[in-house]
Specification:
The chain is mainly α. It has helices at residues 8-47, 72-86, 97-113, 126-135, 141-148, 152-162, 177-198, 211-234, 239-265, 274-295, 300-310, 320-338, 345-354, 359-370. 37% of the residues are buried.
Length: 378
């Protein structure tokens, strides 16, 4: 066997090569370790937040996974809102005798109530047209004006908002729908449509508990504004759909109010009790709201979000649109109370954060709901 001699130059090259290999191997090891750490951190972050599967730019909202659907603090706020709406200082959920019979009949009839015009009007004809036009980037301003002019009440609301200091760009008043639509833009119109279209539905004839319709309408607008703000702040759901669904729980309470009044009319010698109205709303309003969405042929996503309220899922287990409704409802309640000096921002923040909101988002939805006056105007 012939042996090759190795000179000093060859030895130096071999040593240098070995050193380079070691350094490259070390660098690769450090890179892999850093990558793994980043990956673990990302997985840890993703496990503690909710992701919006249909929105790549979503900024998910962190939730408290074990926060229940309702707590004593939430129940107390809800009770206080009902006291204001029905003009009573206290109430007792113990319902007996003829009043219990009325409540049972409400339970039997609630599911069918959304099909009866006496209790609930059919889907506003203008709503789907406007939703389509506002979501279509090809829609012209003239198309929107032609749709809005079909509803005089809506046209008045558009002009009123366009003349709000938040939107006006000159001292001259906005006196035409064309200018109003141009001034508000698509976002301004989207924030107005559902509320303006549904306002007439909340009107009730005077008789029993006359404050109920006005307080419920106020709460509906606050809930809708907060739901919209949640969707906007977290970028996890369509703000317009969140706003529309934020109105439906209150609309369901209107349906149940009308139904309860009719049930009492069949008992002419029985004076209506606030407890029967309130308990019926607590038991059946979420399901009625879901049925309204189905009768209006809203999307499966919207119906599912409302079904999550029926099932009383913990907010951490809801989809983003369901959480928008949930937190909108909470913000709506506490701002109704705050408008009457019965709740503070500190208390509201504690309640919302305990249910899973970041403080920044809690502040955003509080301000959106609180900006509305008791008459519903910003």
């Amino acid at each position: 066997m012939r042996c090759h001699r190795t000179g000093p130059g060859s030895i130096a090259i071999a040593v240098t090569t070995a050193i380079l290999i070691v350094l490259l191997g070390s660098a690769a090891g450090v890179a892999v370790l850093a990558y793994r750490r980043r990956q673990q951190a990302t997985e840890s972050d993703n496990s503690s937040v909710d992701t919006a599967s249909d929105s790549p730019t979503a900024s998910p909202e962190q939730t408290v996974d074990d926060a229940p659907y309702s707590t004593d603090a939430i129940q107390l706020a809800q009770d206080e809102c009902y006291k204001i709406a029905f003009g009573v200082k206290s109430f007792d959920y113990q319902v007996f005798g003829e009043h219990a019979a009325v409540m049972n009949r409400i339970g039997e009839s609630a599911a069918q109530a959304v099909q009866k015009r006496d209790y609930f009007p059919r889907r506003p004809m203008l709503l789907p047209k406007l939703m389509q036009a506002l979501n279509d980037s090809e829609s012209s301003r003239r198309t929107l004006v032609n749709l809005i002019v079909e509803d005089p009440s809506l046209a008045g609301s558009v002009l009123q908002r366009a003349n709000n200091a938040l939107y006006r760009t000159s001292r001259e008043p906005v006196d035409s729908l064309d200018r109003a639509v141009q001034t508000l833009g698509v976002d301004g119109l989207r924030g107005l449509m559902a509320v303006a279209i549904l306002q007439p539905v909340f009107r009730l004839p005077r008789g029993y508990f006359d404050a109920f319709a006005d307080v419920t309408w106020e709460q509906a607008q606050r809930c809708a504004a907060a739901s919209e703000a949640y969707a906007t702040a977290t970028r996890s759901a369509d703000p317009f759909i969140a706003q529309l669904l934020g109105l439906l729980n209150a609309l369901a309470r209107i349906v149940l109010f009308r139904l309860t009044v009719d049930m009492y009319r069949e008992q002419p010698n029985v004076l209506p009790r606030a407890e029967v109205f309130i308990r019926s709303m607590q038991l059946h309003a979420p399901d009625v709201a879901c049925r309204i969405a189905q009768s209006w042929e809203l999307s499966d996503l919207a119906t599912k979000a409302l079904r999550e309220q029926v099932d009383r899922l913990p907010p951490g287990q809801m989809q983003p649109l369901g959480r928008a409704i949930y937190f909108g409802e909470l913000a709506g309640m506490v701002t109704v109370l705050a408008a009457r000096d019965a709740y503070s921002w500190e208390g509201a923040e504690a309640l919302l954060v305990a249910q899973g909101l970041k403080r920044r988002t809690a502040q955003a939805i509080w301000h959106a709901a609180a900006e509305l006056g008791s008459d519903g105007n910003r």
